[in-house]
Amino acid sequence: MRNLLVSVTILGMMFFTSCKNSDKSGVVDTEKQVVIDSMKVVAEKQRIIDSMKVDAAKIAKEKEVIVVNNTTKTQSSGATTTTTKRKGWSGAAKGAVIGAGVGAITGAAISKKKGEGAIIGGLAGAGVGAGTGAIIDSSKK
Fold first, then answer.
1. Contacts with 52 (C-beta within 8 Å, 6 or more apart), sequence order
2. Which pLDDT does position 102 carry in this prediction?
3. Which of 110, 135, 134 is nearest to 121 (CA)?
4. What are the DSSP calls for the chain, one per residue?
5. Among 140, 53, 125, 40, residue whose Cα is nearest residue 90
6. pTM for the full predicted model
7. How many CB atoms are located within 10 Å of the residue 121 CB?
């Protein structure tokens, strides 16, 4: 009986061992295929990323801005538009506006007749502000 039990145990071990070997080779092949497939997916993603970088570089090159003699040229999809750079306010104009506002407020505050004081103060302030702005403009040049 003991010999029979030992024999059955040995045969059972051989059976399970032989089954595991065939399963292991199948599992190993499957694992290898999974790794290969994942590498293919990563390579495809990298190819897509690279192509997107190339496209972004092309778009950035098309939108490049060229400045020549205060004229801005923008190239976009083959069409070229030219716009001239606008000048801002001169110092004299800014000074006149600021001076008029300050003069009007001061004139209205000081005078007994608020309307007349605001008008006189505004005119005086505008004149002083325009003169000051013109002096600043000439010193900048």
1. none
2. 92
3. 110
4. -HHHHHHHHHHHHHHHHHHHHHHHHHHHHHHHHHHHHHHHHHHHHHHHHHHHHHHHHHHHHHT-EEEETTEEEEEETTEEEEEEPPP---HHHHHHHHHHHHHHHHHHHH-SSHHHHHHHHHHHHHHHHHHHHHHHHHHH-
5. 140
6. 0.39
7. 23
17: exposed, middle or buried (C-beta count within 10 Å: 0-12, 13-18, 19+)?
exposed
> What is the number of other CB atoms lying within 10 angstroms of the CB of residue 75?
14
* HSE value, Cβ hemisphere, 13 Å, CA-based, for 93: 4
State how far the Cα of 126 lies from the Cα of 100, in Å rounded to an integer.
Answer: 4
**What does pLDDT average to over the chain?**
78
pLDDT digits (tens, 9 = 90+) for 52-69: 988 888 888 877 766 656
Q: Report the residue count for the chain.
A: 141
Query: What is the average per-residue pLDDT within 100-116?
Result: 90
Burial of 85 (0-12, 13-18, 19+ CB in 10 A): exposed
Ramachandran quadrant class, 48 (left: phi over 0; alpha: psi -120 to 50; beta: rest): alpha
Question: How far apart are alpha carbons 25 and 32 in whole angstroms?
Answer: 10
